[in-house]
């Protein structure tokens, strides 16, 4: 449960930059390593390795007698280097544009190898975490039994790249960069319909601000208090590098080669990784791979539905994880 560290030495990034040393922090939950099927959980942009337990951000999905059952599985969650979780100043990265999601995927595989883990029952991640899951699959197409990207895609779309640029400009030019970038980002993570249902043009008690304004400002302040500027710059930049080194032909080649069951999970109202992009991915995959399924969460709430609509997500994932339990019991 406690935060642990793996020291990665002599690592060369995709752009040729050499890192003599990189710390890779992680947490392990559930069954001891080597005794049970392993599920790797990749966190999203402002997330971390605390996927279950106290302050666990995916407690509705992971835990005792939950869909991803800690009484049955070994759960590993790495922190993307540079996310600053746990207060390690050494884990902040200044040259953030040197890194790609493929670099992170390589680091995660190195970390797993260090732990003696060579195959994964599943790798699951939402948003940026799902993009890293895809990259891990591209690197080792026959080492993952179930590849489960949620509210994500195998490549960054033009829309996503455009929004990464806007975020980067805010982060490098605003007087309150983390706070202000978060305000803009929340407009991508939710939808107009979600805001209307929640606020409906109401004002707060003193009538000075609309409730939507208060809510956005609160989210800006909350992230500003817990997330370093360097971390936000890096995580935002990584989004646009998803699938950067993989063209459509190579993606089809991966689909033909992989032994993984690919479970695509989109959100019908997602403004970040749109359902249209996921449907297109599914159409490409199913032509060459019979082990692919497509599921769509129905929600007013947009991209953040993968952190909100737990009943739907559990229902989608239940068969994959309970079938494995039945097999081994």
Architecture overview:
One of its GO terms (biological process) is homoserine metabolic process. Keywords: Transferase. It comes from Flavobacterium suncheonense GH29-5 = DSM 17707. This is Homoserine acetyltransferase. GO terms for molecular function: homoserine O-acetyltransferase activity. There is one protein chain. The protein is α/β, with parallel strands linked by helices and 329 residues long. The mean pLDDT is 95. The strands form two sheets. An eight-stranded mixed sheet has the order 1-2-6-3-7-8-9-10, with helices on both faces. Strands 4-5 form a two-stranded parallel sheet. The protein folds into two domains: 4-156 and 242-328, Alpha/Beta hydrolase fold, catalytic domain (Rossmann fold, 3-Layer(aba) Sandwich); 159-237, Rna Polymerase Sigma Factor, Chain: A. 40% of the residues lie in helices and 19% in strands. The protein has helices at residues 101-114, 128-139, 158-173, 177-189, 192-198, 211-226, 229-240, 248-257, 275-288, 310-328, and strands at residues 4-12, 18-30, 38-42, 62-63, 68-69, 74-78, 120-126, 144-150, 261-267, 292-297. The two termini are 26 Å apart. It is built from ten helices and ten strands.
């Amino acid at each position: 449960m406690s935060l642990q560290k793996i020291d990665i030495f002599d690592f060369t990034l995709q752009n040729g930059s050499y890192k003599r040393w990189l710390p890779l922090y992680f947490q392990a939950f559930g069954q001891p390593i080597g005794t049970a099927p392993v599920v790797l959980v990749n966190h999203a942009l402002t997330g971390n390795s605390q996927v279950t337990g106290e302050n666990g951000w995916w407690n509705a999905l992971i835990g005792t007698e939950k869909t991803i059952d800690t009484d049955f599985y070994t759960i590993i969650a790495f922190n993307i280097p540079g996310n600053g979780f746990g207060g390690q100043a050494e884990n902040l990265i200044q040259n953030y544009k040197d890194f790609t999601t493929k670099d992170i995927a390589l680091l995660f595989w190195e970390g797993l190898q260090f732990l003696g883990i060579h195959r994964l029952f599943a790798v699951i991640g939402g948003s940026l975490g799902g993009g890293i899951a895809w990259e891990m699959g591209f690197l080792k197409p026959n080492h993952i039994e179930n590849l489960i990207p949620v509210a994500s895609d195998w490549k960054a779309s033009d829309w996503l790249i455009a929004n990464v640029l806007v975020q980067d400009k805010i982060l490098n030019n605003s007087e309150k960069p983390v706070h202000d970038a978060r305000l803009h980002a929340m407009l991508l993570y939710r939808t107009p319909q979600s805001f209307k249902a929640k606020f409906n043009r109401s004002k707060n008690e003193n009538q000075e601000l609309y409730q939507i304004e208060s809510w956005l400002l609160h989210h800006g302040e909350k992230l500003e208090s817990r997330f370093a500027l360097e971390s936000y710059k890096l995580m935002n930049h990584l989004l646009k590098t998803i699938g950067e080194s993989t063209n459509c032909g190579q993606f089809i080649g991966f689909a033909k080669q992989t032994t993984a069951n690919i479970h695509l999970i989109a959100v019908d109202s997602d403004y970040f990784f749109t359902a249209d992009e996921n449907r297109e991915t599914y159409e490409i995959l199913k032509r060459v791979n019979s082990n692919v399924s497509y599921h769509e969460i129905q929600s007013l709430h947009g991209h953040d539905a993968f952190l909100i609509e737990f009943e739907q997500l559990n229902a989608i994932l239940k068969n994959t994880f309970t079938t494995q339990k039945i097999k081994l019991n």
